[in-house]
Queue: 2 jobs
Job 1
Amino acid sequence: MKKPIHIAEYLWLDGAKPTQQLRSKTRLIPGETGSVDLDFFPQWSFDGSSTFQAQGGDSDLLLQPVSYYPDPTRGEGHFLVMCEVLNPDGSPHESNTRARLRQLMEKGGKDVEAWIGYEQEYTLYQGRIPLGWPDFGYPAPQGPFYCSVGSEVAFGRDLAETHLAACLEAGLFIYGLNAEVMPGQWEFQIGYRGDDSEVADPLTCSDQLWVARWLIQRICEEDGVTASFDCKPVKGDWNGAGLHTNFSTKEMRTKGSGMAAIEKAMTNLEKRHMDHIKVYGAGLSERLTGAHETSPIDEFTWGIADRGRSIRIPRPVANNGYGYLEDRRPGANADPYQISTELLRSICEL
Ligand code: ADP
Ligand code: MN
Ligand code: MN
Ligand code: MN
């Protein structure tokens, strides 16, 4: 009997500088349904000279599957496969930021039982103009667009909704979505949802965020729209786009000791502020100005319920005395593997 064919889309990060981009290619894999696990997906290779990852003379790099998801774009029996890029000898390629997070998880990162929630902001473009913007000039000033409803203020909801459905079908920990402050800008969140049976650890959530990014870009292709992760898409008096990262350890979530652990985290984060800024996205200085709900790039500050600080402790967390913190510094184009790596290094002194 002929085996059924599964279509697998292999995703990986290229070597583009200053911002790594997603690449993917398709492979058809014969196999029995029901027998699918990670080993089902073979190691594969690609031309690294076309992705800023190798020279032409010796260009084959390896794709090592690390997690897989039902593919909502192709349907039942097909998969999205997240991969790490390896050198021909099997060692992690220098562009492989996931490997560094994976190693840190093994070196103590797992023991602290960290949970993550990423808030991914993005901007939809039709050609060179954000969705909903006039061909010439500017829309009305910011104010009515955040969490808005109505076609004169919310632009691109069909795409945000299609993306939500796709994330659900892929089994991602999608937490919510909303229209953002700048017209044409949206946000979705991936991470801890209050269900302790979902392991929202840094590696899992970072893989899922890359898959969710791939999905929004892929879905937008259908309409000839572009989803941009630029962290300051329109200069001037317009909100930038961030990747707020919510983080907790088991200690921070514990009644009684939680707030002390959160305050200790602040002290640790302050010491390594610039190490974080270095990997929090290209063009970050244009976004972290001190205006538009940000804190200036060269200062570390924190506060309760204050959206003008580097780190915010949400009001309910302060009231309860335990919970999580929100790092508001990362730009929308930052690499979640590197954000999580720096947070674990600083907060957990790894
Ligand atoms: P904001 O008020 O900043 O817009 P959102 O409602 O967009 O916040 O997102 C809240 C985020 O907090 C979600 O990504 C969620 O996964 C995350 N979160 C909630 N509880 C925790 C926790 N204990 N640890 C880590 N992240 C958490
Ligand atoms: Mn949010
Ligand atoms: Mn937001
Ligand atoms: Mn936020």
Job 2
Amino acid sequence: MSKPVVLVVEDEPDILDLVDFHLRQAGYQVHKAADGLQGLRLAQERHPDLLVLDLMLPGLEGKEVCRRLKQGQATRDIPVLMLTALASETDRVIGFEIGADDYLTKPFSPRELVLRVQAILRRRGEPQAAEALMRLGRLTIDPQRHAVEVDGQDVDLTATEFRLLHRLASQAGRVQTREALLEQVWGYAYQGYARTVDTHVRRLRGKLGPLSEQVETVRGIGYRWREET
Ligand code: CA
């Protein structure tokens, strides 16, 4: 059994070493890069199973590294865990817009990082069941193509937004707690990440146009896909 390979791109030596140490302890093989260009090159050459990518990097910014990887035919499937020093909403959102699979805000605990890495790889490893096309009123979800339509018009969703919508719609009419959504959609269930769900629900609503109100907030509990009447 070969160990999964994680490429860590981080310009702060202390953090790079810390992350390296903990990932090795957890059984991963680790490659390291200290700037964006080197990170991009290593990702293209070695095709790691996952990339831990700092946002603020010398040379080529983490955002740009991620963008280029997601544009490359051979590298677009490499999942990216983004590290950011900025806790602001904007940067979190940017992380997802450019296709990062998850993010961690500094300072983070190494244990948390390892859990996130494990969750992303576990999610990736799950066989993608050939699920049937789902039609719910004006909404169509095609799990095989990862495509969504509202009134026959394509809706462009990120991978995370797609999973969130799919989960809500497949449980239509039933309330999903934030914790359950975190576990189902993100692959982890910790206290304190409810805002991650809220942020994505807000973005999802924004993209659903005429169906935005079908994602109903159930105060103090979570969210529910309201069936059209
Ligand atoms: Ca940095």
